[in-house]
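#help-structures
NK: newbie question, is this the right format to request a structure? protein is Calx-beta domain-containing protein
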Amino acid sequence: MSTESYNSTTFNCQRFKCSGRGLILPFGIEACMSIQLRAVLYFVFLLYLFLGIAIIADIFMSAIETITSRKQKIRYPDPGEKDKYLTVEVRVWNDTVANLTLMALGSSSPEILLSIIEIVGNRFEAGELGPGTIVGSAAYNLLMISAICIASINAPETRRIKLYNVFLVTSFFGFFAYIWLFIVLSVISKDVVELWEAVLTFLMFPLVVILAYLAEKNCFASKKIEMAEEEKLIITPPETDAAGVPRSFHKDELLQFLRDLGQSSNLSIEDKAQLFAAKLSENMHRSRMQYRIQGARMLTGGKSLFVNLPDKLQEIYEKYQKIDDESSPSAIAQEIDCLPKLEFTATAYAVLENEQRIDIIIKRTGPINVNVRFRLDTIDGTATAGEDYIKLSEEFVMESGQQEKKITIHVIDDNQWEPDETFFVKLSLPESEENHAKVGSKTVALVTIINDDEPGYIHFEEPINLVKESVGKAEIKVARVNGADGRVSVHYRTKDIEAVATRDYEPADSELVFEHGEISKIIAIPIMNDLDTEKDETFAVELYNPTGGATIGKHGRTVVTIINDDNYITMANKMASLVQVDIDKLSVTKTTWGQQFKDAMTVNGGDLETAKFLHYVGHTFSFFWKILFAFVPPTSIAGGWLTFFVSLLFIAILTAVVGDVAAIFGCLVGLKDSITAISFVALGTSLPDTFASMIAAKNSKTADDAIGNVTGSNSVNVFLGLGLPWLVAAVYWESKNLPFTVKAGDLSFSVLVFSCSCIIGMILLTLRRFLGVFGKAELGGPTIPKYACSAFFVFLWICYLTLSGLQAYGHIYWAT
């Protein structure tokens, strides 16, 4: 078709260059514009269309997520009770089938539709833009996305492909699809696609799906098939709230989180709910479709599918994540404090009078990079300042980087027999420090001056201890009296009364050691909180087998009563409801028209507190598209199918315009369609996939969602994106007894170069999986090998573009 024409009836400005390249464009007014201005405008318009496609593809993927996440109820024998059944919900769609069908269609719909529209628009004659975009996208997806994903993992972390059998199947077809394309165009029937070739090409699409599904089920392996994820779900059915609505988490997870977080007074219930929702969001299973949606929303400043925390809570959450799983709740509570906190390491000390000194230790938790001033004052008990000890009342400084400070208090040895005497030491902050630091719970220490050399008696301070069910741990004080000489020990154990070990509390049977001079210890017994209303329950803790000369005192047994905590239960249930609300906000399957327009008109889906500058920029540029596509029916209607077809129609319209704009832009700047397709169009349509894979690489525990699906999408692009239009066109020309002509030309060379790059890239990914120098994983690993591999993949993509360009412009001879 001629690329130039002249409209003498309307415009007399200049020859109208590239006016015959599009199906819809160009507009007649362009005849009076300079070629340079038109090129710039078409380039900007092309970018803006890519932005629109990303947004409508987000909606399209939300519809697919709604469809593939549909569940059905089944009955399953209760493993705990005979003749009883559990009713649970399981997913209808298999993940592998969903990824290679609807997911691949959603991810590659612009490329597939561009190929279909180009053939239909050209009166069933093949063009270069559609096939070129499919090959160019495949090269970008395999090489550039792999490079980005490898480099995005923090060293030395790694991500391995879990469903490796599926990956092997899709990798083979991802390579074979393009070899088959080359064979069809250049070997079997040169420059002609026969009907049987088109049919076979299209039928390879369901073949890939079937073989990948069988590979996932280990049908090609001799080893025992592992239990499927759905079967694991059946054994642990989801919990429900008071209204019978399923929760996205188990109450045990919430209770453990509250124990780990500690009783911080700085956090409201809403803050704690957000932190727990962030933890759930990070650990929940996500499909490739959700990562694809999140990638598009990153570009456009849309509502995130992850919980975004305000800076203050984000800092607390990051500190929480660093805590070891075995850390105590009190240590975690201290860790998340934002201000330095000072307190005594112990609340009771003992000193023999003839030692004449006692060291009191003050510890700091929280930030340690600042100086903190504090004050110590002694207060008389039965001991008198000036007669039994030297009075202390002064300020001290905890230096930057210092976590403990030892302060010495002097004791007066008067060589007279006296009973044990006590005094107190009080810790406080000067007024000038109250806004820069705080004190903990241990601000008063008891000091006992002991006048004999006996090892002493060991007993519980109280014969009865009351604890709330929500306390986390029952702390039971054990005292050493009438002597503190030498190292002694005593064993302790728990015994059930009404409370049952492992259900109401964790049983204990251990040893308590008192070093020389120590007179107080604490036994910590973890208490189970199940949020169920129940009567008070008791258990006993008893001391036995003392060593080192010590003797069991008058309270060798204490009874611990666990009392029900209605306030805590109410708070925890309220928090559970808030968490579920936060999680539901992330759903793409429960949208309404009102919610769509609200999300379209607000930055970051209305979450202004966590919105960044780039969110505002993306929202500003995409505002028109967001408002336009808010009219698409929400996913809550007709199970998502109505959204699916309407958004697919919008994608088809935009893709038709993209084809025109890309062809005219390439014409204006002197680029051949084959080069425009593998560069600008391929890059534009693959940009959301780039962000999706990068997010999946960072947040997923495996590499499947990052690069494992790339090979599957690449094969589907050929078998569906070319197989379907080829089949339609081949049937059309067959009905006229004419061949369907498809010039191999630049396409066959581009396919060959990509195939060579594909082989090299797959070899490198395989080496990364099995060699220790790369961390034995496809993604991440040690810093230098990681970046070296990433750079090599980029080099392969540049070579692909360079060689394809040199051949297209005749610098490399290619016999076609």
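mod (FA): yep, format's fine, and the tokens are attached above. DSSP finds 21 helices and 26 strands in the chain.
NK: thank you!
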